[in-house]
Amino acid sequence: MRLTPTSYVVLGLVRWTPGSTAYELERTIRATVSHMWAIQRSQIYREPARLAEAGLLTADADDGARQKTRFSITPAGQEAFDKWLDQTPDEMPQLRDLAILKVFFGADPESIARLRLLAHQARLKEYELLREAGGLTHQGPRQAIEAAIAHERTSIRYWSELAKAKGC
What we know:
The protein is mainly α. α1 (about 5-15) crosses α3 and α2 packs across α3. The chain has 7 helices and 2 strands. It is elongated and about 60 Å long.
């Protein structure tokens, strides 16, 4: 079975919170990794069942008023996840920013810079509040939030300089 980054996100989150439903996973993804890794909502709901079919998760159905399936990681899932963690990524990330793409093709950066600056300042505040709240219990999320804060600060610097250069 081919595992994707979405597979590993699901395995990792189920590892941290055994017994999660797909709905709980979706909420956790939105609150945590969605700012650094985009996952379509439909993928979040399909992936746990796919991983269970492959023997990487267990699926325990609760036949209450609304059927809920709770997922837990299996030893094979733990092994696959650990192996993935040990692999060093060899690809460089893409800068997928529609605003920068528009600037590249000649859009007037003045209004774009103003709006982007506000958006990055707001996102920075979110990340700083998340860090200050102290809810990041694992070392990995704490390190990732520091990377996100550094990214937002760099983006703020870029858009501020562009705004000044164009007289915003």
